Amino acid sequence: MKYAIILILTLLVSPANFACYNEFYSLDAKGQFHRIDIGVIRFEQNFDLERVERQLRKIGKKLQSKADYKLLSDYALFLVKGRKVQEALVIFEALAEAYPDEYSIAANLGTTYELSGNNEKALEYIQKGLKLNPDSHGGSEWIHVQLLRAKIALEKDPAYLYTHTILNLNKKQEESETVRKQLYTQLRERFPFCKGPDPVMADLFTDLGDCYLHSLSFEHAKGLYQIAKIYYQSSRYELDEKIENVRKLREKYANRYPDERLREQAEGMVEKISGVPYTSYLENPNASGYEINWEGILTDPDQLLRFTGLKRVEEVKYKPTAKTPEKTVEKPKHAVKESTSNNFVLWIGLLAILLTGSLFTYFKVKKR
Known about the structure:
This protein has helices at 2-13, 49-63, 69-81, 85-98, 103-115, 119-132, 136-139, 141-156, 160-163, 171-174, 177-190, 199-215, 218-231, 237-252, 260-265, 301-306, 313-317, 333-367, and strands at residues 22-27, 33-36, 43-44, 269-272, 282-283. The protein is mainly α. The strands form two sheets. Strands 2-1-4 form a three-stranded mixed sheet, with no helix packed on it.
């Protein structure tokens, strides 16, 4: 009896009994099925400030004993996440001056410039970072470049996005898995920094929705359109049309289910997704509203830079270029007086010579 019970328990908990998984599929705009990983689309609304604080304290201690510029760069990045953007900007500027060929520093400086409102400088350094490492972030930094160009255009013309899109994707790009993944990567990284309303983010989420519509899932496309419309508060009428189009596609393919081939390939039950709420894509790592306790955390950029022997950029740039003597000795006061006296005697002598010469010339002419 004892062994029978053990055998039954073994069968119940064996891996084979967990093989009956659900596999989820969705349709694109053409009605083609694609496998979908439920929960794979996630956007963090905030940073986990408890973790940010722990990292600042941990890296701060290391910095005081180890002069490592990479540690300082990491520290500045967590300052940004802790909303100390201006302090981080001073640090990244100095690091970029000292280490001009470091991709991560150039990219972080560009992003920090953007967060501080300087889109021109941001574009300069994001483009530099792209040249240093074209494959960074899955090769998606071209999107960041286009985004910054659009932001600069918006500064000159607030109605720019009514007649333009940021990426101007063509049909081939909308159907591209690579472009979809690159755009998702960029938006996922930007999301905690960008609260609504935000027309730039709304435009990019509309593009991401178009990519999902044509390459993977019109159900996910609808959720992404709703983020643009509701979370980022876009009032563009095209979004309503796109959302309505998804509802029509859902009706059109209501009776279409994965075929036998897909069912045979699946390891368990096959299920078609429908009606994904956009709120299911959103996460809040700081749901408790935690605020960083800055006591004991270094935020003075000049002090932090001294750990690695650096100074803020303006001190370097505006340093006098004239060569400074190796040793400067202050003249004693009596030497200054003596020098002044000697100069006075010299001038009197020169004046006397000129006067004598003038008198000699005068009398010589008079005799004639």
